Every structure is written in structure tokens, then in C-alpha cells.
Amino acid sequence: MHRTRRGSYRCLVALCAVSLFVPIDVTQRGVSGPEELWVNGLEDAAVNQEHEPMQTADNIQWEPSSFQPSSAFSGADLGTVVADSYRGPGNNDRRINKELPILLWWSENLFPHFPGDTERIDCPFSSCLVTKDKRVKLHKRTKSIIFYGTDFRAYEAPLPRMPHQTWALFHEESPMNNYVLSHSPGIRLFNYTATFRRESDYPLTLQWLPTIGYLQNPAVSIAEKNRWRKSGYAPVLYMQSHCDVPSDRDRYVKELMKYLQIDSYGQCLKNRDLPNKRLEDTSTATTEDPEFMKFTARYKFHLAMENAICADYMTEKLWRPMHLGAIPVYRGSPSVRDWMPSNLSVILIEDFESPKEVAEFIMSLDSDDEKYLKYLEYKKPGGTTNKFLLSSMEKREWGVNDITAPNYLNGFECFVCDKENFRAGAEKMYKKSPKKTPVPEPHIAEYNHMGCPVPVPGFGTAAEIPESDSWMQMWPQDYWQSFDQGEALTEMILRNETNQEKFWDYMHEMYIKRSMNH
Ligand SMILES: *[C@@H]1O[C@H](CO)[C@@H](O)[C@H](O)[C@H]1NC(C)=O
Ligand SMILES: *[C@@H]1O[C@H](CO)[C@@H](O)[C@H](O)[C@H]1NC(C)=O
Ligand SMILES: *[C@@H]1O[C@H](CO)[C@@H](O)[C@H](O)[C@H]1NC(C)=O
User: Fold this and answer.
1) Domains located in the chain, CATH noted
2) Where in the sequence is the signal peptide annotated (predicted)?
């Protein structure tokens, strides 16, 4: 691969001030479509940083139909309203597209706009252009690069890192998808984060809970559940087809099965066939297919084990059984209690000394309907008493399957857009009167924006597990290697490295340094 050396642009770029919030007459408001944008402006400018983009095509009018307002905070009437209606009430940003900061979505597969590569977004306080066209990666107007955590590769990160650009991380998925982000060196590469952690800048913690009402869906009656038990159903359902994961859940379930009857249907630890072959397609679970839901709701308990253990990482494995009225037997986020509808709604594996004790407790509820039903009281009117849960749901601005609210991808890009416009404003003020204005503070993500602990065996200790065990060979090593990757990339950035391909050299150098220190 050929890469030109572009590091020399940096100083020029840093010197170029952006004009902010220039009020212009609305009647003159012109917008260049995505194509012109590149032809007239950005591509030239990327090569000639010292020149302002040419001021042409400023009087082309908006065509509402060509503007796809999939952006956040958009009104419901998509086809007919003009662009101005999408802005938040605090957005008086009258700049034309060419004056707006650019946010670049780095992941090939994630650009939350359709169709096209570039779009204007009008956010609660300000406006930006968003694009997935990587040709703007060094442009002075490109103020932030947004990465999708699962696809983020330290060895493919955009270099050199431009001092005028922030990095934003969107990662709603499991920590197992990218352990680079679970360590300080990795997460501190980013300025803004949207993760499952409540401490992240734009938290997605309750992404799997559509509404509080979802929890209040009625349960199958206890009489019917007991009939299914009599007909041969186990008290507990396990359905898992993703085996060999960091939480090592199957090792625990196998042990639990020694003491407790569990009907296991997925690829991992399967001991029973589903009543209908069509349910073997896992999409019946992901789409909450009515037949799938009806079948699984017959069980009194569901084993709900996340694929990785991390604070605030909670998925449908937890919320769906609650929706159905089964008691989740949960292992996952150690802070899960904070989010539960009431103080008696789940069985937490970590509260017990051993799988045997968990089994005994489940059996005691299985044979005592009154005790069992106490775990479903959160479904009654007023039964959801957790104020933190209720207020978190009320405060969140994005929706799940809700066309009246923005989705969290568009919500986060607007969050970044407003941050970048505020930052540009603060920098401009500082430049104007450095004596009277404070230096704008950097904003850097912390370990607790994601930070997940090293994977441990699902049952027993590492010393008891043979080295040939596939989990042993995979996850602890993946975790620590990811730490090194974050450190290597940090070092590349510190040294103003421009060549991505040197990543493995940096990794190698680090290993050598480390072994010399030992
Ligand atoms: C749950 O909360 C209620 C009311 O606040 C309290 O009386 C009860 O003891 C709590 N139960 C547990 C198991 O903490
Ligand atoms: C962004 O984060 C980096 C560290 O990764 C830091 O050096 C830089 O100052 C931050 N930028 C802003 C604008 O906060
Ligand atoms: C990297 O570049 C910055 C200017 O952007 C400079 O201050 C710094 O000294 C450089 N670091 C190295 C290791 O060359």
C-alpha cells in the first residue's frame, strides 16, 4: 500500500481558524450536495491546506426530497418539512455546509445515514456535516473521527493523529468484541465515548430495555407453569448457541446441571429438542418471534449468562426473561442490582457459594408458588420501585424501536457535533483574548468508560484447568495482548508516526523493552 507522507500538513492545519456561527441571511442559504462538496471543496483542500475551500455553488437551494432527515431529533413528517425544522430549539446555526465542522465515521459498515456518503445534521445546539468518506481524514475541518468499537483495529487507526481532531468511540456491543477498549491505554485514545457503561459520556446501558412497560408484560400463570413442569419440563431453560466465550458460562452450567434439571436447547450443552424445528433458527429469538416467546415463557427460570463479565454490560439475556415473566438466573454485570425494577426480581449467581447452592435455592422456589411469585411483583402496578431505573429511562433521549425518538447512533453523533462546535467556540474565544479566557480543557476518556476485568474461568480456577483447554488458550491471552495493542498505538501517536504499517514493529519493540525490564 502506498501512503503519502502527510504529517507536514499538521502545523498549517493547526493554524487555520474556523469561522464559527457566522450569521447569514436565511434566504441566501445555499447548500452544496455531497458531490460538489468533494469536487469543490474538501478534496482540493486536503491537498492544499493553506487555501480556503473555494466559495462556489453557494446559491443552490435545498431540495427537501434530496435531503434524508434520518438524523437525530428529526420530526416525524420526513418527506415534506424543510431542513430547518429538524434542528433543536437551541440550534441557531445558520452556516452553510462548507463552513460546518466535519465528523468522519471511520467504520466501513456503520454510517447511520441513507443514502449517500455525506449529510448535514442539525443537532440540538449546532450543525455539522457527517461523512464516511475517508479522504477527509486530515482535513482541517474534520474535527472528530467516530469509531465503531467492534471494528476498531489499532493497526488500522488513522495516523498521524491530528491535534485538532478528537476521536469518538461508539461501542454498544460486548467487551469481548474488542478488549483493546477494556484497558486504559486503549480507551484513553478516545475523547468521547458511548458504551454500555453508565460512566461513559453518552451511556447506552439500557439499550436492551425498550420501555418500563416491557417489564410489565404479564407472566404465564403459575398454574400453567406447574402443568408444564408436570408434563416433563425442567424448572430451568438454557438456550445458548454461542459457546467458547470469555465468561466461560458453559463450564458453570455443566456444573449446575449436576444438581438441577435444566432443559438446554442451543448448540452449547444441548440436551433436548425444540418443539418445532423452525425455532432452531436463532433469528426467532432475536426478532422475538411469537412462537419462540410463547414457548420460552413456560419456563419458571431462565439461565441468563452474559458472554462477558463487565460492569453495566446487560443484554436481552436479562431483560427478555423478565418481559416473559421467568426469573432470570443471572451472571453478568456485577452492578446489575442497581438497575433491577425491584429488590426481588432476579437470582444472582454471585450471591451463592456454589452451583449446588444455586440449585437448591431454585428448587426451593420451584416448590413454593408464593415464594416464587414474590419475584414477579415488580410487574404489578407500582411494583417497579427502583427510582434510578425509572429516572434513567425517563432521561434518556434515544429510543429503542421507537420512531418518535432518535436512535442512539444519530444521538451520539449529535452529541459529538455539539461538543465539537462548543470546543471550536471556546478555542476561538481563547485565541481572541487569551488573558481573559481560560484555556479549553482537553476531554479524555477514562478506564471506567468501558474497562472490563480479565476473563476468569466460569467454574473453578485457572490452576485446575488444563492448558490445552480452548478457553484457556483463547481469552486471557486475547485480553492481555489487547492491552499491548493499546500501548503500541499510544506510542505511535506520541511519536507522530505516520505509517500505520509500522504497528507490529512497535508491538515488537514493546515486547523487547518489557522483557529487558524483567
Ligand atoms: C426490599 O425492599 C423492601 C422495601 O424497601 C424491604 O422491606 C425489603 O426488606 C427489601 N428486601 C430485600 C430482600 O432487600
Ligand atoms: C483528545 O484525547 C487525546 C488523548 O487521547 C488528548 O491528547 C487530546 O488533548 C484530546 N483532545 C481534546 C480536544 O480534548
Ligand atoms: C510531534 O509533533 C508535535 C507537534 O505537532 C511536536 O510538538 C512534538 O514534539 C512531536 N513529537 C515527536 C516525538 O516528534
Assistant:
1) 2-23+30-44+67-205+402-453 (no CATH), 212-393 (3.40.50.11660)
2) 1-27
